[in-house]
From TrEMBL:
This is YbjN domain-containing protein. It comes from Luedemannella flava. It comes from the Bacteria. Pfam families: TY-Chap1, TY-Chap3. InterPro entries: TY-Chap_M, TY-Chap_N.
């Protein structure tokens, strides 16, 4: 889609139906894959081995906070620990709702299960499915991990990792390959468009060549009633994650003031109106490209666009991209609605980026 064409939405021609590429359904599928792999890993965790799963702070925008869980296999039992407030900086400590969620999931308060300042639980080693569900919901719903690809994991001792399956989209910590590797693909050797296609393919669990493209090469992603596009720019190198939030809107002073107010609350990104279309946009630097920055921008934009199109439609009318929203379905606890963010921000965890 050219810059000149951004004053009106173009009819996209996709390789695949965009309704089949709903990111919400893909994220749910990614969490299900992660939970299944984790259940298998827990059953096969050698006695004396330790598995540590952590939300990557460099990718999630949580600063020095280290949200994570640790699992140990000891004498036929599995001991698990979850980070609590004493280990977190004040601005990222768990609120009462998050602590209540941990308790509801089955965690014992700190100190009860030889867990020092962490939450703890213990169960037989054979019950990996239940524990995997608890750990997955803790990382996703309580700690606010937007996608399993934002998780890094380590297994000690080193030889124990070979006995365990790869934990789906989560990234193993290996010497010499920090950060996102997409299962050992060297992104730095690819062009920016190839890097973007590789990352989006990994995020949407589809081969890069099968990504839904419009006639201008933009990647299209459905999110509820909204549509989000990912476009690669050459000069300067930039990846633009944007959405036509509303079309057929009557632009007036009240609308522009409202968009300015909403933009002012976004540390990065903007909302603006061109012609009769309201757009939302979040840029990602193409120079020294970081895959997790793109993944988080997409995650935020899809949630933001799907919320804003309903909110602004109620205030100003117009048309949303999709009028009929198909609600993704999936496994019961993997598809459960997220709890409030750990820091008390209940706005779909978007505060970590916007």
């Amino acid at each position: 889609m050219s810059d000149e064409a951004m004053d009106k939405p173009a009819e996209a021609t996709f390789v695949d139906d965009p309704a089949e590429m709903d990111l919400g359904a893909k994220v749910t599928e990614a969490w299900l894959d992660f939970r299944r792999a984790l259940a298998s890993a827990l059953v096969n965790l050698p006695d004396g081995a330790e598995l540590e799963l952590t939300l990557d702070p460099s990718a999630s925008g949580v600063g020095e906070a280290l949200f994570g869980v640790t699992v140990r296999a000891v004498d036929g039992a599995v001991q698990a620990y979850a980070v609590g407030n004493p280990s977190l900086p004040p601005e990222h400590r768990l609120n009462r709702a998050a602590i209540g969620e941990l308790i509801a999931l089955g965690w014992s308060p700190p100190g009860v299960v030889n867990s020092d300042q962490r939450f703890g639980l213990q169960q037989p080693v054979g019950d990996g499915t239940r524990l995997a569900g608890v750990l997955t919901r803790t990382l996703r719903d309580v700690y606010g991990t937007p996608h399993p690809a934002f998780l890094v994991y380590d297994v000690q001792p080193d030889g124990a990792r070979e006995a365990l399956p790869t934990l789906a989209a989560a990234r193993p910590i290996t010497a010499g390959s920090p950060g996102y590797t997409d299962h050992h693909i060297d992104l730095s050797s690819l062009t920016l468009p190839e890097q973007v296609a590789t990352v989006m393919g990994a995020m949407m669990n589809t081969p890069p060549e099968s990504l839904p493209l419009d006639r201008d090469g933009d990647i299209g992603i459905r999110s509820g009633s909204a549509m989000v596009f990912v476009r690669v720019r050459d000069d300067p190198p930039l990846v633009d994650v944007f959405s036509p939030v509303l079309t057929d809107v009557s632009a007036n002073e009240h609308l522009h003031v409202r968009l300015a107010e909403l933009t002012h609350r976004m540390p990065i990104g903007r909302l603006y109106c061109i012609g009769d279309t309201v757009w939302a946009s979040v840029p990602v630097f193409g120079r020294d490209f970081q895959a997790t920055h793109l993944m988080l921008a997409v995650q935020v934009m899809t949630g933001l666009a799907d919320e804003l199109d309903d909110r602004l439609h109620g205030e100003f009318g117009g048309k949303r991209f999709f009028t009929d929203t198909d609600t993704p379905t999936g496994d019961d606890d993997a598809a459960a609605p997220p709890s409030p963010a750990p820091n008390g921000d209940d706005d779909h965890h978007t505060g970590m980026y916007l």
